[in-house]
Specification:
By secondary structure, the protein is mainly β. It has one domain (about 1-85): F0F1 ATP synthase delta/epsilon subunit, N-terminal (ATP Synthase, domain 1, Sandwich), CATH 2.60.15. The chain has strands at about 1-5, 10-15, 20-25, 25-30, 40-50, 60-70, 75-80, 80-85. Strands 1, 2, 3, 4, 5, 6, 7 and 8 form an eight-stranded mixed beta sheet that branches. Strand 5 (about 40-50) and strand 6 (about 60-70) form a beta hairpin. It is globular and about 25 Å long.
């Protein structure tokens, strides 16, 4: 699945990933390949990018809210702000 993460200042990430875990306003959720089309609001919390299926390569960001759109195996995350996290 292709993942693109954007803030008003810059693109944070763009590339092929196994999945992404996001903090929704109603609770956390995960998006994997072939996920149904959707749009959801994001709350404040940790976002985890899962680069490989074995989850040996991941990236973490602290986000301050935004939106996610999933359509045709492309996930676009639009954020108000994000910082790298452990």
């Amino acid at each position: 699945m292709h993942l693109e993460i954007l803030t008003p200042e810059k693109a944070i990430y763009s590339g092929e990933v196994y999945g992404v875990q996001l903090p929704g306003v109603e609770g956390s959720f995960e998006i994997l390949e072939n996920h149904a089309a959707m749009v959801a609001a994001l709350g404040e919390g940790k976002m985890k990018i899962i680069i490989d299926k074995a989850q040996t390569k991941t990236e973490h960001f602290q986000i301050s809210g935004g939106f996610v759109e999933v359509l045709n195996n492309k996930t676009s995350v639009l954020l108000e702000g994000a910082t790298a996290a452990e």
